[in-house]
Structure prediction request, 116 residues.
Amino acid sequence: MNRAETGRAAEDSAAELLRAKGFAIVERNFRTKMGELDLVAKDKDEIVFVEVRARASSAFGGAAASVGGAKRRKLILAARAWLQARGWNGPCRFDVVAVDAGRAEHIPAAFDGSGR
Prediction:
Protein backbone atom coordinates (compact mmCIF):
# COMPACT_ATOMS: atom_id res chain seq x y z
CA MET A 1 0.00 0.00 0.00
CA ASN A 2 1.41 3.42 -0.89
CA ARG A 3 1.20 6.48 1.34
CA ALA A 4 -1.99 7.87 -0.26
CA GLU A 5 -3.74 4.49 0.07
CA THR A 6 -2.62 4.19 3.69
CA GLY A 7 -3.96 7.68 4.41
CA ARG A 8 -7.30 6.93 2.74
CA ALA A 9 -7.64 3.66 4.68
CA ALA A 10 -6.87 5.47 7.96
CA GLU A 11 -9.45 8.17 7.17
CA ASP A 12 -12.04 5.51 6.32
CA SER A 13 -11.30 3.76 9.61
CA ALA A 14 -11.54 7.05 11.51
CA ALA A 15 -14.85 7.96 9.86
CA GLU A 16 -16.26 4.52 10.71
CA LEU A 17 -15.13 4.84 14.35
CA LEU A 18 -16.68 8.30 14.68
CA ARG A 19 -19.97 7.20 13.07
CA ALA A 20 -20.13 4.32 15.56
CA LYS A 21 -19.86 6.94 18.33
CA GLY A 22 -22.79 8.89 16.88
CA PHE A 23 -20.89 11.54 14.92
CA ALA A 24 -22.09 12.66 11.50
CA ILE A 25 -19.36 13.14 8.91
CA VAL A 26 -19.98 16.56 7.35
CA GLU A 27 -17.00 16.79 4.99
CA ARG A 28 -13.78 15.00 4.04
CA ASN A 29 -10.50 16.46 2.83
CA PHE A 30 -11.40 20.16 2.97
CA ARG A 31 -8.43 21.88 1.33
CA THR A 32 -7.25 25.46 1.62
CA LYS A 33 -3.93 27.12 0.86
CA MET A 34 -3.29 26.99 4.64
CA GLY A 35 -3.72 23.24 4.90
CA GLU A 36 -6.19 20.39 4.82
CA LEU A 37 -8.81 19.12 7.24
CA ASP A 38 -9.03 15.33 7.03
CA LEU A 39 -12.54 15.08 8.47
CA VAL A 40 -15.13 17.58 9.60
CA ALA A 41 -17.77 15.95 11.77
CA LYS A 42 -20.71 16.96 13.91
CA ASP A 43 -21.03 15.70 17.48
CA LYS A 44 -24.43 16.79 18.76
CA ASP A 45 -24.33 20.60 18.36
CA GLU A 46 -20.56 20.88 17.97
CA ILE A 47 -18.42 20.87 14.83
CA VAL A 48 -15.35 18.68 15.22
CA PHE A 49 -12.24 19.09 13.10
CA VAL A 50 -10.55 15.69 13.04
CA GLU A 51 -6.91 15.14 12.19
CA VAL A 52 -6.22 11.52 11.22
CA ARG A 53 -2.67 10.27 11.72
CA ALA A 54 -1.44 6.77 10.81
CA ARG A 55 1.77 5.01 11.75
CA ALA A 56 2.90 1.43 11.17
CA SER A 57 3.71 1.10 14.89
CA SER A 58 3.45 3.09 18.10
CA ALA A 59 7.24 3.42 18.33
CA PHE A 60 8.63 6.95 18.72
CA GLY A 61 5.43 8.17 20.37
CA GLY A 62 3.03 6.82 17.77
CA ALA A 63 0.59 8.63 15.53
CA ALA A 64 -0.87 10.95 18.18
CA ALA A 65 2.55 12.36 19.03
CA SER A 66 3.04 13.40 15.40
CA VAL A 67 0.53 16.26 15.71
CA GLY A 68 3.04 18.91 16.77
CA GLY A 69 2.78 22.67 17.11
CA ALA A 70 3.30 23.50 13.42
CA LYS A 71 0.63 20.97 12.37
CA ARG A 72 -1.81 22.31 14.97
CA ARG A 73 -1.32 25.87 13.69
CA LYS A 74 -2.03 24.75 10.11
CA LEU A 75 -5.16 22.91 11.25
CA ILE A 76 -6.39 25.98 13.12
CA LEU A 77 -5.95 28.15 10.01
CA ALA A 78 -7.75 25.60 7.84
CA ALA A 79 -10.54 25.34 10.42
CA ARG A 80 -10.98 29.12 10.44
CA ALA A 81 -11.29 29.02 6.64
CA TRP A 82 -13.91 26.24 6.91
CA LEU A 83 -15.88 28.15 9.56
CA GLN A 84 -15.89 31.26 7.39
CA ALA A 85 -16.74 29.37 4.18
CA ARG A 86 -19.59 27.45 5.80
CA GLY A 87 -20.87 30.27 8.03
CA TRP A 88 -20.71 28.18 11.22
CA ASN A 89 -20.84 30.24 14.42
CA GLY A 90 -21.46 27.45 16.91
CA PRO A 91 -19.04 25.56 19.14
CA CYS A 92 -16.17 23.59 17.65
CA ARG A 93 -13.18 21.55 18.78
CA PHE A 94 -10.16 19.65 17.47
CA ASP A 95 -9.97 15.86 17.82
CA VAL A 96 -7.32 13.42 16.67
CA VAL A 97 -7.83 9.86 15.49
CA ALA A 98 -4.51 8.07 15.83
CA VAL A 99 -4.14 4.83 13.88
CA ASP A 100 -1.19 2.81 15.13
CA ALA A 101 -0.56 -0.55 13.45
CA GLY A 102 -4.17 -0.60 12.23
CA ARG A 103 -5.73 0.18 15.64
CA ALA A 104 -7.68 3.47 15.76
CA GLU A 105 -7.88 5.57 18.91
CA HIS A 106 -10.13 8.64 19.17
CA ILE A 107 -8.72 11.52 21.23
CA PRO A 108 -11.47 14.12 21.82
CA ALA A 109 -10.43 17.74 22.37
CA ALA A 110 -6.82 16.79 21.61
CA PHE A 111 -5.79 20.45 21.50
CA ASP A 112 -7.41 23.87 21.67
CA GLY A 113 -7.65 26.52 19.00
CA SER A 114 -4.95 28.76 20.44
CA GLY A 115 -2.19 27.22 18.30
CA ARG A 116 0.08 26.43 21.24
Summary: The chain has one domain: 3-111. The two ends are 34 Å apart (CA to CA).
